[in-house]
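Quick question: what would this complex look like in 3D?
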Amino acid sequence: MKIYFKPEGGFGYFPGLNKPLELNSETLPLEEASHLKQLVQEASFFNLPNQPSQPVRGADKKQYIIKVEDKEREHWVQFTDTEVNPPLQKLVNYLNSKQKK
Amino acid sequence: MALKALVGDPTFRSLRLGPRLSSDVNRKIPSAFLVAGEKQRTIYSANYTQNLPGTSVRTEGSPDSGDIAVDEAYHYLGATYDFFWKVFNRNSIDDEGMPLNGTVHFGQDYANAFWDGQRMVFGDGDNELFNRFTISIDVIAHELTHGVTEDETQLLYSSQSGALNESISDVFGSLVKQYALNQTAEEADWLIGAGLFTDKVQGTNGRAAALRSMKEPGTAYDDPVLGKDPQPGHMNDFVNTFEDNGGVHINSGIPNRAFYFTAINLGGYAWEKAGRIWYETLRDSRLKPNAKFQRFAELTLENAKRFGAEEAVRNAWAQVGILPYNESIDYSI
């Protein structure tokens, strides 16, 4: 499984925190790869809509793009912090922590 | 006195075509019972989730809660309300007494603050790079000003109009801080988010790091993890990018610096003339949602006439590479 993660936006633009992240489960330690796959599954990632149905209002919100490739499947989603989806937020928290390293 | 009368002048306001903000915001007290100049704050806690608005933890008139994020949000939203009321006679975000709703403890280690169209939302920071986002009064005022801008002009949140939207929030964010500290333009630090970064983040020139510098865009931080402050301070360095909604937090450095130069050129308290010119421009019905820097500069120059400040404003924009030729304004629009 390959994951592409791109955070954007927020109160300021910080070049070091907006770099894209690519993860490949095959190159991760076994336990971490399993954790990542579980996060993707719990988020029902492949069933999520690509984008929010309502136009995004407001300012300074963070936005995220996540793309997952898994065997024959490929799916991407774009969303902001106000998306109420705790399992998806857990996946973002994990990817954010990896992105900062 | 004459200046105060002008601030309340509804000439341009009544010409606005855009929708008002408050229609979809629930009021706790019917507006008929609200007295202009009386604020109505409610602070909520998201309890480390991303559910909004969260649970109410402090309402208007109640004592300090002991939760520093709650109390900072309450006091700094109050200070921002007082600034707009006392300086510009503006009654809250929509000038009709809209309640001020703030949510703190949003998310887990959430390093951001935003305006969601109805309320101001603040994270606690990750404590690695960012402290809590309620720590800086100008950050709270920045978010509230997004509401004011949305109410007045709906500047599109992309490219130059988005950078103007961001700059206006920085301008009034900084003015609220200067007003609270009773600082003149010369005394102010012109930093946005001073104190927001932890000690681990590296500043420049021996200064502690901040999010942005209106005086010297591009110098607020230079850090191995965050990178270098990417803001330009002149049109020669304008950044064309798809990132950050077309660089809204990047190119805002240019109009930010124009405001700084205007304030320095005029001297004294920045909110008295420079701030008033920017405020009148924000309320000017000729400022359209897709406005670019050039048009905004032209309108600041037009509004500067009433305050005898044309030369100071023209000079300020020229220093960032924008020449607002007054004669280019099409008054028929």
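Answer marked as accepted. Chain B is about 35% helix and 10% strand.
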